[in-house]
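Journal club prep, shared notes

We agreed each person brings one worked example of a sequence with its structure written out as tokens. Mine is feruloyl esterase. I'm keeping it raw so we can talk through how to read the token line rather than staring at a rendered picture. Sequence first:
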Amino acid sequence: MRTSLLFHALAVASSITGSHAAPSPGCSSGGAFVPDSVVNVTVGDDRYYLVYIPVNYDPEEPAPLVLSFHGGSRIAEQQLNLDNLTSKAFNRDYIVAYPNGVDKTWYGVSGVTTDDIGFTTTVIDEISAAYCVDTARLFATGKSQGGGFVGQLACNTTASRRIAAFAPVSAVFYISAPWFGDTCKPATVPIKPTINYGEGPRKDGCLPTIPHWAQMWASCDGLGPANASRPLTDEGAVLYEWGSAEGKRGLVSHVFSGPNIDHSWPSTFNNPDNILHKDGPASFNATTMILEFFEKYPLP
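Then the structure, token by token:
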């Protein structure tokens, strides 16, 4: 499996870099589009997703595609209003898809068994047929439970061969006990009131310490256990990167948002998260870092 991982807390990228644009069927469709607009697309009787067409979209030039997954108890429209990926100040080139979860949740959480990986595949296929997509530059991000589902995609053999890089934000990673050893112990250093930065039980599963989760991804990508760290801002944000010894620095990266940031999408201005949690603005923009990370790691 080839994966790339950044997270804010985290990101994972393909271990092989350097690619050229791979046009999708939509590059020859000549379909109608309106730049800087959002389209609502229904799938079957009970699913839908939103598609944002960037201001620089050209139907003859393959464009990268980002999938952005909402958090638990949220819907696609709320994620669109949170992640800044539809703002021309942050994104002028990436098509962005916002899949909507069944009952405001995603596969793998508290017994939820909806085929969200199949739904994600359908979203990719439909957008690739309707628009000119660079299939070597498909990416995934998400917040909280949606970020945890991004981790599910990164672990899925089929999805990880299509999606080049993954950037879950403040994610909930429900994992099996072997990651801890034999037990799931309560966290000793809770950083985030909603989701602990340290390991511990939650709902019907176990959560890892976030640094351990990043280190395990580094191991899966064939990188050594050591990371290089540096302050990201003067307000306590820190960037950790694995892969220096192998010449792949940053292939797996972890951003600690700082001690004063709650379960929020980091932003240097007010957004729905930091207003709700009263913890912002943050000292950096997660959206900028995510897009810079994606730019570095297309599929070969």
